[in-house]
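User: Quick sanity check before I run a bigger batch. Here is a single chain. Can you write out its predicted 3D structure?
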Amino acid sequence: MTTGRIHSWDLSTGVDGPGTRFVLFLSGCQLRCLYCANPDTWHMRDGMPVTVDEVVGRIERYRQFTTLAGGGVTLTGGEPLLQSAFTAEVFRRCKELGLHTALDTSGALGTRAEDALLADTDLVLLDIKSFDAGVYMHLTGGRLAPTLNFATRLNRLGVPTWIRYVLVPGWTDDPAAIDGLGRFLAELDNVDRVDVLPFHKLGTHKYDSLGIPFPLRDNPVPDAALVERVRDQFRSHGLRAR
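Assistant: Done. Predicted structure follows.
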């Protein structure tokens, strides 16, 4: 029986895919994004062990509610593709129940997503942290190329995708890098929209409770003018940005 490790679950509306959704937070992430709001999901060993049956049983309790609200199930983290077999089995069972599925991922482990998993994925929420490879490395500790390769593969397979772009002043607000990403995304037919997400510090207390430093504690958050400027840059490439 397929098992996984999860941090928690929640119900949300509007931020984790269409409608009201059952959101499952998986434990474990190989990246260390400087702005991460969920450092308590980094280590798989800290998660609660569960079976697919246990997860699906809980999902079924909210099936009627999420379906009537035009929603479904979102797997996030952490990084769901760190537990790709578990993610694939949960999605397969969700599709048997007729539920809409969304995968929230950095794409850095996109090679772990087999075609069968993506066939059971109705929507990918693809987090592209930066279009500058150097900034990406400093910001996340990982490489940009795997994420772009995954984006290209999603386009080839025709998997609907929403792009998530966290706007961090001094890190991801460079106009040239944003225009580069805009040009890249404009070539992909499967990208429905780009969500520009303002950097926030709501997870600061988690760092404090874990006794680890929050690297961007003193970094400013973006103002409304900067957020709109970046959205307009994406729009200038024919993309729907919000």
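Residues 128 and 165 are 6 Å apart (CA to CA).

User: Great, the batch can go ahead then.
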